[in-house]
Amino acid sequence: MRPVLKLLKQRILQVRPQLPSFPGRAARADDPAVFSFNEQRASVMDSVTRRIVSRYRTREPQELLYLLSDAANTEVRRLSSQKDAEAELEISAWRKLLRGNGRMSHDERVAALERICARMSGDVAGNFDPRVYGIALRIVPGLLTGVMSPGTFPRELVQPGWPQLDALIRVEGPVERLRRLARLGTLILVPTHSSNLDSVALGYVLAREGLPPVVYGAGKNLFTNPIISFFMHNLGAYRVDRRVQARLYKEVLKGYSFEIIRRGYHSLFFPGGTRSRSNMVERHVKLGLAGTAVSAFTENQLDGAPRPVFFVPITINYPLVLEAETLIDDYLKGAGQSRYIITDDEFSQVDRMVAFLKKVLVLRNGAVIRFAEPLDPFCNPVDELGRSLSPSGRAIDPGTYVQQGGRPVADELRDMGYTRELGELLPSVYRRETVILWTHLVAHVLYRYLVLRTPGRDLFTRQRVRDASMRRDRLDREVGLAQAKLIELEQSDRVRLGRAIRSEPPSRLVDEALEAWSGYHSKPIAVAEGDSVRMLDPNLLLFYQNRIVHLADDLATPETVKAARIIAAMGEGA
């Protein structure tokens, strides 16, 4: 045991060239800006409060009256229903504000606004400790490898890097260009969102690929786990309490996002807002926070210190999803909106996470993270030098988009329009850049057959079918036809495929899907029985096939075209 511990200590102290040195080293000129975030933290919070207070100080007094009334009313309702320690601590102050707001002078309301904004921004603001970052980069890969594959752990200790974990996560896209753009401007990463593991996987990939760490918003419920909370709180995550619906709180969040982007901190937002319950690729995105990048770009133009902003769409693609059972149940119950925050899913269960990681390790790929081509805030592509390009390929100045009469001008409505255009573009980028994996393909063919065999049934009665079987020879044949069509679609730049779909025979894809679906979820999704494959869990079949639902019509055969149209309609209605 001692030799193993000695090797582990040596491995933790090793430094990969693109990563920071061991904690405690002196600061370097090429450090990411976020390394000095804690020195600016108080200034950031002060700027957030000052901007909001300045905005309402000069507006009509009634606006501030309504803003404070809205905040007090919504918080009293929320805290009354919570009945917890937070409620006991805060509800009396909100009730006092609610009673006295109408009798306050404008100056008294401004003072109350300042106190509330300061408290809210303090609750939101994160930290970044380079020492914790250095420790995380050294121990997390080893711990993950040890959990996922104890038998290979000693061998991993004597090899450079962490081969098992590196093999687990594949990265695609213009990574080298993104490294250059990170030095030229501010990156805004906008990924799809399938699992609470997304931010962990992305954080590891950014470090592994020599990209800078990012500041990102995380649901406050994720900070309840003391270990996860320690790392998130010290690695740039700021807290977003989705239970708080007050308009003032949303202004504080936007103000915080605006300020960190304006100061050049690379950021990450999940435009879907929350994990995709259905596992469909996001069709509608929310860019409320990410849209602050347009305003921050404008502000820097006004300050005479223009700094480019680059949006980077990312798709995160898993053959298995840790929280699949909880997410699809939530979706089918229609609880995705009402139960916006899930606090009791597989991510919070250590045994389920360990089982998931062990299972994923034996698969062909644990995840494929694909970086799409970067865009400026106005939907223009960006070249190797960070220049925005017109449709004809000519270099253009993005600053002209925020100018009037040749000078930059702040215009909130105009910036909202640009943000809306970006929100309309992202779903098409996600659909094109989503990587289709073998589990998605096999699930789609099986589920399509289930739809074919249950004519006239709606979604919910179909999901209760538990005895459907598909002949194995037919399954292999239809997987092969769909595989060939997917390869054609990739060649026409309409979709991206995992390596297995490009190279493996259909029977092998089916075997690997059945293997992937056994041993992790509470029961197998589908199993081989004689010369057929029996579908045991239609809900999870639906979940995994939903990743490919936007291609249902393209993959249909003459015999399955009606079933494919039903599936495609499910995607259009999402």
Question: How much helical structure, as a percent, in the residues?
Answer: 40-55%
State the end-to-end distance: 53 Å
Strand numbers in spatial order across the main sheet = 1-7-6-2-5-3-4
Largest sheet, in brief, is:
7 strands, mixed
Computed Rg: 25 Å
- Structural class by helix and strand composition: alpha/beta
Low-confidence stretches: 11-25, 146-161
Give the beta-strand count. Answer: 16
What does the average pLDDT come to?
Answer: 85
Gross geometry: globular
Structure report:
There is one protein chain. This protein is α/β, with parallel strands linked by helices and about 575 residues long. Among the domains are: about 160-215 and about 265-435, no CATH class; about 435-570, no CATH class. The chain is built from 25 helices and 16 strands. Strand 15 (about 525-530) and strand 16 form a beta hairpin. Helix 5 (about 105-125) crosses helix 12 (about 245-260) and helix 14 (about 325-330) packs across helix 23. It is globular.
